[in-house]
Amino acid sequence: GAIRKQRLAQEKLTQKGNEIAELQVQQVSQQMDVFKKSLEEFAMKYKNEIKKNPEFRARFQVMCSKIGVDPLASSKGFWAQLLGVGDFYYELGVQIVEVCLATRPINGGIITMEDLVARLGKSSGKTRKDVQPDDVSRAIGKLAVLGDGFKIVKAGKQSLVQSVPGELTMDHTTALDVASQSGGSLTISSLEKMGWPELRINQTIDSLMDQGMIWIDEVDSSYWVPALFH
Fold this sequence. Notes:
With 230 residues, the chain is mostly helical. It is 61% helix and 9% strand. The chain is built from ten helices and six strands; from the N terminus they run αααααβααββαβααββ.
């Protein structure tokens, strides 16, 4: 009697809850469809602005990400065909690889974002003044499919693009940050001032030397970071 009524009431409540949840999902789905349709109309209207204006392009990317749309998902996708941005980022990705490979013998596979953007501006005989750090970051995100070779690391205020496999430790990036404050110069004494013991200093320097990211100055036994030299 009473138990059966209670169970029936519970079943009805569960059923009603499921119906409400399903309705909410449908409403959210409809809202997303409306958002995406509006985004497509917006993209059609401001197509040239999105392609030519880096700041506008970055804001458009943020707008897309908020509703789960990735205009860069595929160079053959709807968004790529509509805007041409897929091709823009894939072409940029190829140019980033070219610049990083060309400069690797000099810098050991790390290059400042500033230097990379400047070199991209002159690459392929074209002037690409429209390329901004935000574009480079997005293109590098797409290069992740190549493995762990391409990533952006922070060394203090500097953004460095790493194009060789391997993990830069906190000590590595700290040493690079110290060097960036001295025009690319790194000395044992500058690391000693941070309270580092001899073993820690030697391990960090040896590791960066092995990776070709720093060079030794035979004259005064100091070190240089080619990527930060200016």
